[in-house]
Amino acid sequence: MTFNSISGRFALLTIVFVVLAELLILVPSVTNFRRAYLETRLERAQIASLALLATDESIAADLESELLENAGVFNVVLRRDDVRQLVLSSPLPRPISATFDLRDRSYWRSVRDTVHRMLSTKPEIIRVIGQPVREAGQLIEITMDTAPMRTAMIDFAVRLLAVSAAFSVLTALLLNLAAQRLIVGPIRRVIGHMTAYSASPEDSRTIITPSARMAEVRAAETALATMQRAVTASLKQRERLAQLGQAVAKISHDLRNVLSTSQILADRMEDSDDPAVRRAAPKLVNSISRAVNLCETTLAFGKAEEPQPTMSIFNLAPLVADVVEAETLAAEADSGTVDFVTDVPAGLRIRADREQLHRVLSNLARNARQAIEATRRPGTIEISGAEDETHWCIRVGDTGPGLPQKARDNLFQAFTGGIRKGGTGLGLAIAADLVRGHGGTLELVRSDADGSEFLLRLPREI
């Protein structure tokens, strides 16, 4: 047992507290011992005086000396019938220095006299006055030396402290055994489960089952079990996401090859004799190019490699118009109940990666459109742009039903922050990553029954 353990410190504190308690009662105990000692001397002196009275107050000198020595006093004075009578006497080695009347019941005065007598090493002659036992007189008075009394008081204090020390050690051992069984044992069990779990966190069999009887330890076990289940579930989810990521990477790789072929065919459509085909061909080429770029980005994302933005300065209005045109066509094809409103100054120029910003705005606009279409009621999506001294700001708001609580709690987290039923949440997660790559921020300004609003902020200085 060491003092840096719970049981060791518990035992040490037990010893300290018990000894402290004994020290607090030491002075009162010694005070009571001193009073009992003086009363015993008075009783012995009274018995010695009775021997003299039984002989008609005539006794030999050597017998008188022996009686006084056995009583431990020098003189005995007995008052009877209002007459003070010196019964036994012997020469005093020193003058009387103090008088103590045991009929005085002042406790604190007794404590003060006891402490003084314990600390004083100089022998003194004192007078002690008390009440005779069995009504043998009005009072009895003796003179005695303080040295034997002080020695007896010290012996009593030492014995008391020795008993206290033994009691403290025994109590500490018993409490240590109790602490080992009731506290340390359950804590070691929790530590053992934590060690086993850390070695294999995916194994649900290593999750602790709360079984402690103590409320505090059981609460700790319950909290640990909850945390272990959450971590295990998170690890399993991450494993599934990793497997899904590998599958998506393979699909994106093959899809990129298919789209590359489609891009070549779309390029040839520009040479068609049909004017409508020639007008649609550039938009088809741009859409396929973005799909190819998305596949390449997905491959990079699966490798945990975020593509660095290629910065350029361009007008924001045409890019927003391109996003709105694509989403308008999708809205018309689905329900035709979504209107788009833009408020972007014609001369607003920003510095960003054009393709990445197009993806960010497309994801936000697509999420808003799908949320409105899910309500089967008409709605509006507004995209506005502005700038100040430090940032370019783009707002995307809608009049949809607002985000569900789960989406708000896991916003911008892949596969957990999906807005619509069946969604994966990848759109917002990718958008947030792309904005962070620009040194900017994407945040949800509001989301309630009147709709949602996102704010994209890009720094002017990068």
TrEMBL record:
Gene Ontology MF term list: ATP binding; phosphorelay sensor kinase activity
SUPFAM superfamilies associated with the record: ATPase domain of HSP90 chaperone/DNA topoisomerase II/histidine kinase (SSF55874), Homodimeric domain of signal transducing histidine kinase (SSF47384)
Keyword rRNA-binding: no
Catalytic activity reported: ATP + protein L-histidine = ADP + protein N-phospho-L-histidine
Keyword Glycosyltransferase attached: no
Source species of the chain: Paracoccus sphaerophysae
Residue stretches making up the Histidine kinase domain: 250-462
Residues annotated as transmembrane: 6-27, 156-179
EC top class named in words: transferase
Superkingdom as given in the UniProt entry: Bacteria
Keyword annotations of the record: ATP-binding, Kinase, Membrane, Nucleotide-binding, Phosphoprotein, Transferase, Transmembrane, Transmembrane helix, Two-component regulatory system
InterPro entries associated with the record: HATPase_C_sf, HATPase_dom, His_kinase_dom, HisK_dim/P_dom, HisK_dim/P_sf, Sig_transdc_His_kin-like_C
The protein's name in its UniProt record: histidine kinase
EC identifiers of the protein: 2.7.13.3
